[in-house]
């Protein structure tokens, strides 16, 4: 009796080998333009019923053999492949590029351990892989850690050294978060992986993207490390107009934090992949917006910008005590910084925060919409750099650390806002005397977008000693480490009976009116 695995292997061996073909990024761009000039053709799953109907546990029991990876033991990088099934039903075409020649990578069942799965006799293999991930010696010379994943639509994730996966990036978003408008999810349909030299520090991959409204070519150049740096060069061509084209899109998760009211009934103080959105304007000014979640309500904030220097989704709270989750390790989730290179002169940053009932769904979307948008049929070029990192470099300003809101005692119609600013954000080695600011020379400056709202009181307190216990090992007054200076700006306002939402800002200024902190931005919604 012939086993199912042997039957599959026989089917594969009977397939004709794909011949090598010429490849370059210019040829891929030309292919995308040609696709955009033709009607869209939906790609089916083409999976046999057994693969298409795999349960979560069955699919999870299929494991790629790491030592079977592309380029394993041949250089600094290795590539794993994902087996299609369960929710990953779409397949992609993968190619290895050597020099100026590409070779198709046929599906190979011998690369996988199928565990307890019993594959019915005669079941044909999947037509391709569901996606891929890259490995390198990121944390140790003895183990090839994964640091990059492309799986599903145009989604991808990466990590820096000593960090778990967190938020996700996408190649493109279309009509994200628009009420009553269906979102479109273009797919990366083909990947071309350049074989690296033995001493290479970077990995280069190309991708062909296609959706109902667009086709495009992408080039990703990745350098993993303490900061994993990814250059993204792309050309898109629209088939038809779209309401919102989102470049450099990100998806993250924010369920609840210290500023969430009401909080879910959960043993953990906070649950989120990211807790803030940091913008570096063309002027160099830094604006910080804490993320928030309002039960059963959408939040959509639009920031019109000209030649921004960068923007980031950050996980700023690094204290384990804030999460109390050993398994998820939310305190170690990575941040990501977007640095525009070209094609981002004018546009709008859309921050969309959607309601969620738990932590299993990404409910935060951040996208850049160029204005004016690309013309139909005309190639549009753009280039940006992603830095997957732990924390952005210190700016020299007081940095927003925590945001808390509530009602003053026995005054349910008023709102008390407390914002902690820290400089630096974390302890640092002593160099000379502490560089602490004289609090008597600083003041919070608060604005509210509705003139009828009364600001009753504004104040500033030095919370540095109160935060000693937050330092590692209770360092406190250490001879080796400067504790951060922590200042709490607070204000009380009366929103009035009719106000349902407010835009507020707060920043610290010195006696000469010089800004010495990030500008805190907040979108308040009445929840009770």
UniProtKB/TrEMBL annotation:
Q: Where is the signal peptide?
A: 1-20
InterPro entries this protein is in?
A: Gal_mutarotase_sf_dom, GH-type_carb-bd, Glucan_biosyn_MdoG/MdoD, Glucan_biosyn_MdoG_C
Which compartment or compartments is the protein found in? Periplasm
What Pfam families does its record include? MdoG (PF04349)
Report the residue ranges that make up the Glucan biosynthesis periplasmic MdoG C-terminal domain in this protein: 23-524
Q: Which UniProt keywords apply?
A: Signal
How is this protein named in the record?
Answer: Glucan biosynthesis protein
């Amino acid at each position: 009796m012939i086993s199912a695995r042997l039957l599959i292997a026989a089917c594969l061996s009977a397939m004709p080998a794909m011949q090598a073909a010429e490849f370059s990024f210019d040829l891929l761009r030309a292919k995308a333009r040609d696709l955009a000039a033709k009607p869209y053709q939906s790609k089916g799953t083409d999976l046999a019923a057994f693969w298409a109907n795999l349960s979560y546990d069955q699919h999870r029991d299929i494991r790629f053999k790491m030592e079977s990876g592309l380029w394993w033991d041949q250089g600094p990088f290795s590539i794993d492949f994902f087996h299609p099934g369960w929710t990953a039903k779409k397949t992609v075409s993968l190619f290895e590029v050597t020099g100026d020649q590409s070779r198709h990578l046929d599906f190979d069942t011998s690369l996988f351990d199928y565990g307890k799965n019993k594959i019915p006799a005669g079941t044909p293999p999947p037509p391709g892989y569901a996606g891929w991930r890259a490995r390198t010696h990121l944390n140790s010379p003895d183990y090839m850690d994964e640091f990059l994943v492309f799986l599903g639509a145009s989604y991808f994730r990466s990590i820096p050294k000593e960090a778990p996966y967190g938020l996700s990036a996408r190649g493109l978003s279309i009509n994200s978060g628009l009420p009553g408008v269906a979102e479109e999810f273009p797919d990366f349909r083909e990947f071309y992986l350049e074989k690296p030299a033995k001493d290479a520090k970077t990995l280069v991959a190309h991708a062909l993207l296609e959706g109902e409204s667009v086709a495009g070519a992408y080039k990703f150049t990745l350098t993993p490390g303490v900061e994993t740096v990814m250059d993204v060069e792309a050309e898109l061509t629209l088939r038809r107009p779209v309401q919102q084209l989102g470049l450099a899109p990100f998806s993250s998760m924010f369920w609840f934090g210290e500023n969430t009211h009401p909080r879910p009934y959960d043993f953990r103080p906070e649950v989120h992949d990211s807790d803030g959105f940091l913008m570096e304007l063309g002027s160099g000014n830094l604006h910080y917006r804490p993320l928030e979640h309002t039960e059963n309500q959408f939040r959509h904030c639009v920031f019109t910008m000209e030649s921004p220097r960068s923007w980031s989704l950050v996980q700023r709270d690094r204290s384990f005590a804030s999460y109390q989750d050993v398994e998820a390790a939310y305190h170690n989730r990575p941040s990501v910084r977007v640095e525009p290179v070209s094609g981002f002169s004018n546009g709008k940053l859309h921050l969309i925060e959607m309601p969620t009932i738990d932590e299993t769904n990404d409910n935060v979307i951040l996208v850049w919409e160029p204005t004016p948008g690309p013309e139909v049929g005309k190639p549009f070029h753009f280039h940006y750099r992603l830095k997957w990192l732990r924390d952005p470099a210190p700016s020299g300003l007081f940095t927003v650390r925590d945001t808390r809101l509530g009602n003053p005692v026995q005054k349910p119609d008023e709102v008390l806002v407390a914002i902690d600013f820290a400089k630096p954000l974390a302890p640092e080695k002593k160099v000379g005397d502490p560089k602490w600011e004289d609090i008597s020379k600083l003041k919070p400056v608060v604005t509210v977008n509705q003139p009828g709202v009364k600001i009753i009181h504004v104040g500033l307190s030095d919370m540095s000693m109160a935060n000693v216990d937050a330092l590692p090992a209770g360092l406190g007054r250490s001879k080796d480490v400067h504790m951060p200076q922590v200042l709490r700006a607070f204000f009380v306002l009366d929103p009035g009976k009719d106000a349902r939402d407010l835009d507020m800002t707060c920043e610290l200024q010195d006696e000469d009116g010089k800004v010495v902190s990030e500008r805190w931005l907040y979108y308040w919604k009445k929840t009770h």
